[in-house]
Every structure is written in structure tokens, then in C-alpha cells.
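In this section we walk through a basic example: taking a raw amino acid sequence and producing a predicted 3D structure, encoded as C-alpha cells. The instruction is simple. Fold the sequence below.
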Amino acid sequence: MVAAMIEVRGVSKRFGRVWAVRDVTLSVTPGRVTGLLGPNGAGKTTLIRMITSFLLPSAGSVVVGGHDAVVRSLAARGLIGYLPESAPLYPEMTVGSYLRFRAGLFGIGRRRRGSAIDRAVDRCALADVRRRRIGELSKGYRQRVGLAAAILHDPPVLILDEPTSGLDPTQIVAMRGLIAELSAERPLGGGGALGGADASGRQGRVMLLSSHILPEVEQTCGRVVIMARGRVRADGTPGQLMRGGGGVEIEAEALCGSVHDATALDAALSALGDGVVLEPGPRWFGSDGGRWSGVVRVPAGAPATPGAARGAEMGEDAAARVRVARAIEPLARAGRVTVTKLAARGRSLERVFVSVVESAAAEEERPAEVLGQGPKAGAA
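The resulting C-alpha cell sequence is shown next.
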């Protein structure tokens, strides 16, 4: 079993009367990029600052590579490369001089400093701008300089906060590829026995990437943790999150003889019950009938017909389509409705994200808890 390099256990952080992070428990292991996803104010940055020892938790503990991030903060920090959203760069310095300055802060000896800088420059493709002043560089190159500084000491843990913020599409693609390479790369001196190895025996870095850009997380991360209102609300691979919990959505279209037939179709689908929800779509009607469209949400595991086996045998999508078709069948037999489309619509990470955030907001609308009896909603 791959050991976790980051262990967050029941961590909360309070600023005055506001709880920015509330009872978060999270383990991060090598082998894939873990995305920390959430809207602005979800608590992502606050959590990262506690992992990197920039903030002390109000409750709970953070352990990095076996070191408590509060009690042994220097040892924990030594294992982490951290790129904040606004990298702390000095625009008047050249890229090379800035990296030498950062290498000194990391305690990299003079003998190793040159090779460490050369390796970071090579990994982040900075050779062409090494002698240029940072203030003259584009945003994409400045992000690369910040990332080069974060990997100078060859850390087994790399934490990136909004690494593609403000980049253009070409720069985003380049940064995405670099993140994937760094995740798979085996640290030369930092990992030791604390990390994990893949099937080939090669050890990769622990990568924690914070973002609120959904396509970026979906394309970069093998695991997604969604935060909202200071809590972890969902955790899994993108595929698991998109498949789980929401059931199957069926896009349906039909030709109706009249507006009364369309109303009867609404009633037939709404009468399915068991959590089925009707979402009306575009419709038009004339004197000779019209077109009806809508989305029917069928809960996960619902049987195709009452008393039938759950949707495992034919698959969830097929069972949901059959269930909707059976509801429409009496109207179709009577010639009042002609079905033109019944198709399962896959869940996107965006829709999962919106659903999770809306559920968190609804939960927070309950009467506020008295301070001291439990955490209160807040923002990072």
C-alpha cells in the first residue's frame, strides 16, 4: 500500500467568528495529481496554508512525510515545494539570480546549487530567459519561474495554488504538460522511503493542485476533492464523481398532437415518482400540434419497471430509458405522442460541482449555530 505523504486530520481554521475550514480530513498519496476544487471562498487556500505551515490550525493536525506541520514545521516544509497563486517574485532580478537567491533560502549548498538551478531551469524550459529580468517576462514565464523555484530542492511534495490563473490557452496546455511530467518524475533526493512507488517501482511526487477552473482539474487530475463552505463535500476520481449519486438524466423529445397532449406527457413523467424530476426544455405549439422536449432525471439504481431487478443487468442508462419509455407508452399507443428522442445525458464535472455547491449552500441556510457549539460558515 502506498503511504500518504500528506495527512490532514479533523482540521478546522477560524478567523474571529468565521470558520474558513471545518473538520477536514484528507490523505494525499503519490501516483496521481490530486485536485482541490471549489468556488472562491471555499477554504482551499486556507487549507493549503495550513499544510504548508503558513497558518496554524484552530483544531486538528497536519502531518507531512511523518512530520507534524506545527511541532516540526521546518522538517515538514523541507519536503514541500509550494507555488502560491501569486508567486513571490522580484521583478528587478534576473531569472538566474532569483533562483540562486531561492536556492540559498532552501539551504542548498554551493556545490549543489548550480546543478539544482540547472535542473530546475531545464525542467521548466527557462534556458532562453535565464538572463532576463523577471519583470520583462510574460505571465506564463513568470509562473514557470515560480514553479522552478518551488522544485529547486527536489521536494517529494509539490503544492500548486491556481497554477494556470491568468494564462492564455497555449500557456495552459504547456503548464498542464509540465505538471504531468513533474507528478510522474521521481525526486532524486527528497522522497526516500516516505513516498510511494508505481507498478514499475518508480516513485512519483505527491501533487496537490488547487483550482476553481473545472476543465483544468478534469484534464489534469486523477483525483478530485471538492470543497464548499469550508468542508470537503465530495472526493473521488472525475469518473466516479460524474457517475455517482446523481442517477441518469434522459433527454427526451416528442411530437405532440396538441398542448393538452404535452401537458399529459408532463403528468405521465412526473408521476414516475421515486425522485424523478422533470426539467422542461424548449417547446413550441401550433394549431396542428407541436414539439415537446425536456430532461428526466432517474435516480441511480431505479428499476426499469416496478418490481423488476435494479438496473444492473441491462445497465443504468438502458434501464432509465426503458422506464421513461414505459411511462410514455400509453400516450404513444393512443396516437397523442410520437417520441423522437430518448438518450442518456452524461454527467459533467461542471454539473457535479454545481450540485455539490448548491447542496452546501442549502445546508448552510439552516439557523446559524451558536459560536462555541459548532463551526460557522465562512470563506477563505
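Looking at the output, two observations stand out. Residues 248-345 form a domain with the Alpha-Beta Plaits fold (CATH 3.30.70). Residues 190-202, 308-313, 369-373, 375-380 have pLDDT under 50 and may be disordered. In the next section we compare this with other chains.
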